Amino acid sequence: MPQIIDGKAISDAIKEELKIKVEKLNKDGIKICLAVIQVGSDPASSVYVGNKKKACAYIGIDSLAYELPEETTQDELLKLIDELNAKADVNGILVQLPLPDHINEDAVIHAIDPAKDVDGFHPQSVGKLCIGQPGFVSCTPAGIIQLLKRSGITIEGKECVVIGRSNIVGKPMALLLLRENGTVTVTHSKTQNLKEVAKRADILIVAIGKPKMITREYVKEGAVVIDVGIHRNENNKLCGDVDYNDVATICSAITPVPGGVGPMTIAMLMYNCVEAGISR
Ligand code: NAD
Question: 242 FRET partner, CA 20 to 30 A, in 28, 96, 248, 277?
Fold first, then answer.
């Protein structure tokens, strides 16, 4: 049986640590406030936004919710971001993605003050990660590093293969593994011989967006497998990009879906908010 990496327990532990930190900050007169903007009423986005507000309340972070109608123009959204950038009592600004088609996501991400970029998507945050300077890191890959470290898995010197090169998961994941002294290979939809490349991995990170694509044929015996994917299967149950039951027969450690990577994303968002409050 492989080690099952418990993202729920690890994220709970991080939230408890943050709660204590925020209590101390509050005693010193430092309040932390996250502004969350949602445009439209996509049901999945509403669930994510609701979970973020709940986590803020639990940790002691104030949250401001801006629920804007679907027809909000890009200019109106940029104006709101400008106002929040200027507010000294707002430490973090989060715009829930995806945005409606008539709004350019890049323009919106660029508009957020990098000092309040708690999602870590601003080019300045990404640039700092790239050259090894401190800054906000995209929450899902930052959470995966915590999952590995807190599960006693060494990254240094290991062969790490990342499947997927998105700006929010695959690319920052590769940079973080490199920062931890892993030997990193990034693969994607045009990679030749993916099975052979993936089989080189001591640590295999899967962020493809294809339900159960990764079977044991992609996995070296004894590898650590981290599954970022989230899907609903034919029975409306959650599953990942990894065929869990198949891969669990060969790997040494694995994240389940749900209860693996998912809970870590919000925990690391809370971590970034607290950092934003401390460093203002
Ligand atoms: P994306 O669609 O932006 O990127 C997918 C990447 O996978 C691309 O780089 C593409 O080249 C690669 N890819 C696609 N098909 C491939 C194939 N057949 N072989 C090899 N590579 C292939 O997706 P994303 O935003 O990185 O998300 C990936 C998955 O992770 C999705 O299921 C998403 O829902 C999930 N996700 C989960 C969390 C979380 O908190 N757990 C956060 C973000 C994303």
Answer: 96
